[in-house]
Amino acid sequence: MDGMDTADPTAPLDQLRASLPADVVETRPDSMEAFRRDWSRDAGAGMPLAVVRPRDAGEVQATVRWAAEHRVPVVPRGAGSGLSGGASAVGGGLVLSLDRMRAIDVDVATQVAYVEPGALNAEVKAAAAEQGLWYAPDPASYAISSIGGNVATNAGGLCCVKYGVTADYVLGMDVVLADGRLVTLGGPRIKDVAGLSLVQLFVGSEGMLGVITRVVLRLQPPPPTPATLVATFPTTRSAADAVVAIRSATRPSMLELMDAASVNAVEDHRAMGLDRSAGALLIGRSDAPGAARADEVALMEKACAEAGAVEVFVTEDADEGEMFAEARRAAFPAIETRGSVMLEDVGVPVPLLPDLLTAIADVAERHDLEIPTVAHAGDGNTHPIVVFDAADPASVERAHAAFAEVMAAAIALGGTITGEHGVGRAKKAALPDQLGEDVMDLNRRVKAALDPANILNPGAVL
Amino acid sequence: MDGMDTADPTAPLDQLRASLPADVVETRPDSMEAFRRDWSRDAGAGMPLAVVRPRDAGEVQATVRWAAEHRVPVVPRGAGSGLSGGASAVGGGLVLSLDRMRAIDVDVATQVAYVEPGALNAEVKAAAAEQGLWYAPDPASYAISSIGGNVATNAGGLCCVKYGVTADYVLGMDVVLADGRLVTLGGPRIKDVAGLSLVQLFVGSEGMLGVITRVVLRLQPPPPTPATLVATFPTTRSAADAVVAIRSATRPSMLELMDAASVNAVEDHRAMGLDRSAGALLIGRSDAPGAARADEVALMEKACAEAGAVEVFVTEDADEGEMFAEARRAAFPAIETRGSVMLEDVGVPVPLLPDLLTAIADVAERHDLEIPTVAHAGDGNTHPIVVFDAADPASVERAHAAFAEVMAAAIALGGTITGEHGVGRAKKAALPDQLGEDVMDLNRRVKAALDPANILNPGAVL
């Protein structure tokens, strides 16, 4: 399924233009350049035939119908903040950008939001908050990532250790299928088992099965203001041991780990008051109600102390707590300034987190590379970031080897090559190693059943 | 996809027998009778060729391989407590009963349980509790229903208003596919987006896509002991209004409704101290920690009072509270003693619950039938139970009409024909009305991709 070599080079783009408002189909070189890659900076991204920026589902249907007729690949794209190359353009294909479709309609009584895919996560959170409600999922990129992308990758985030991932909040969706039909799956019902779980099949499908044009998201009353705990440890391993101990007793509302390299990268980029001397940092939160909050924080403090924490700091102040969460979220952009990067997203069962972090450090040392690591530690999901010098072929080669070895280490520990970013194009070489040939075959069968001509995001994942 | 008329009537059952231990393939008439129907008492259930009761995944594979070779339908079956005819035998096919596969292995550190499909929900709860952990999902049938059936139907229950449904607790599974291959999907990782969400596709697939031979279930520390609130209302509508008000402010750990007819049915069957004069009863619970529990109970009390509750009773005593939950769970068996029954499972967005209950009462009155109704009210999911006289053709006809009209009413309110029981055979006639032809087509395509010969549970759902 690699690429699509059947694309018609003479596909009549004028026909598509004629069926859509004048400014929907863009072919200016600067547009093409701006829309043909996501944050993974995929060097293999192709040059698209055009960027299509529809304003409603009908325009999406017209685009997909034209593409199906002429066998032109379609790569759906949200805000382009993806980290695995899931939205890399396919040469000669269309980039179908949903960035103009961003309506948000909150139904307070039903506690749901109807959201178009281009709306940013932060915009949904804000719209819900205006009505006294809360949209929980919070990928670190929430300020810049779209809901469509969040749903297409089943994005995680910082609060999922307690509140779950994007999938847990998607009750329904409208999808344009590979033949241009528009269907509605699920809806604003909390429980619904009528037919196969197609809503959940489309969540995390990375644009391979259809183009999501609207989602129904579950909202809830906001949780109490959290208390935030910051603990410094002599080593990454001792911090990871604390995580395992905390998670065996409770599910805090956040439990993030930063290793020494990522702490220093953040401080180098923008001084945020983190302890540069720490071997590792844990940022934990409790939003348990009332007095239970103090109990949960005390439990986390005790676990940190027993695991060898050097210092534990607790604040009930929301702004101060948010500053630490912000420091954690700043890790990607900070580390990106240190060189070229390859972003990892490997995960393991929580008790194996210390082993995974040790394995990552071994890989870094063996290949003489800096691999700063931050982690949604409470879920066993880590983001080692391989930093390399793109101008030095030897460094590039070592980086590729390290990237592959980190995934292999996760698989060897019974883990996954991607916990929340998706496979995209960056990780597809390793997918069979995790899933095995029979499960790859199942994936391909489902893909072929819904997109027999392989129009939708060809070359991604499979 | 109705039935399978291609089954080979001369399929060499001896060949299957020879490939399995002597007692695995049963053909005695009493076995056939005991295993060919679930709790829905489907009059259309066929007479199977044999009942196969394997002890491990290898024996399941041998059975499915033989069935695939000879095009013999296979109906997987857990404990037979299904309410929609999902496990009705197909004439000339195999009933594949998983009741002998019931190993439970709790991994305390990872907070998961590896469970074979025949283990009862209650057995999993007990095994988790022995290790200080909790398996949350609690269908009313938890004492008699199997985990395999819970997963195959994506079973709900009483606690899902706060804790979610079975799908939220399934991290992975082993499945025997239609061609006999055994695959492992997902695993004990909290976050994993490698490839399509096949685990979630198999959850709720009602035996149509594969035979589940093991699941990985998420466990968690147990919640605090709940406080229980019981409120009586003059009318069903006022109780439903209280539900809407409570749910707009919080997610209690239980919020069940019983109408007057179901209260009286339970009391007739076994006196449990419920108020027979009540127009409707709400049973709510809070398991919020510490002082937050009293706050949440007070909030529920206030909402009940404002909606017109006649009396509100609160107990912090766990046994007393459990008695009320037990009375709610007793509704099905109690109502079953009143005549023949057709069990409904319709749901709507929570704010429309009062309208749905009014519509159900209208249907009952119009057809001169008793339709006692209990509801997982906090989720908008109701169980109207159509009681009729099987010996009276007119009564049977009216019951069928009422059953269809209740589903139509739910669909008209933007709801679902099944919130947690599954479509099975009892509701498949109404499924296209809810999903529409395009979504039915999607269901069929996925089914055909995974089971091209339509061996697995043919005639169910689609």
Topology, please?
The structure is a homodimer of 462-residue chains.
Chain A: H1 13-18, E1 25-26, H2 29-35, E2 50-52, H3 57-70, E3 74-77, E4 94-97, E5 104-107, E6 112-115, H4 121-130, H5 147-153, H6 160-163, E7 170-176, E8 182-186, H7 198-202, E9 211-218, E10 227-233, H8 236-249, E11 254-259, H9 260-269, E12 280-286, H10 291-306, E13 311-315, H11 318-329, H12 331-336, E14 340-343, H13 353-366, E15 373-376, E16 381-388, H14 393-412, H15 431-450
Parallel strand pairs in A: 2-4, 3-4
Antiparallel strand pairs in A: 1-2, 5-6, 6-9, 7-8, 7-9, 10-12, 10-13, 11-12, 11-15, 14-16, 15-16
Please, what is the oligomeric state?
Answer: homodimer
Number of domains of chain A: 3
Q: Structural class, from secondary structure content of chain A?
A: alpha+beta
Proportion of residues in β-strands of chain A: 15-25%
Computed over alpha carbons, the radius of gyration of chain A is: 22 Å
Number of DSSP helices of chain A? 15
Q: How are the strands of the biggest sheet of chain A laid out side by side?
A: 13-10-12-11-15-16-14
Largest interface: pair, residues per side: A-B, 89 and 89 residues
| Shape, principal axes of CA atoms of chain A | globular
Q: N-to-C terminal Cα separation of chain A, in Å?
A: 7 Å
What percentage of residues of chain A falls in helices of 4 or more residues? 25-40%
User: Any low-confidence stretches of chain A, pLDDT <50, length ≥5?
Assistant: 1-6
> What is the level-2 CATH architecture name of the largest domain in chain A?
3-Layer(aba) Sandwich
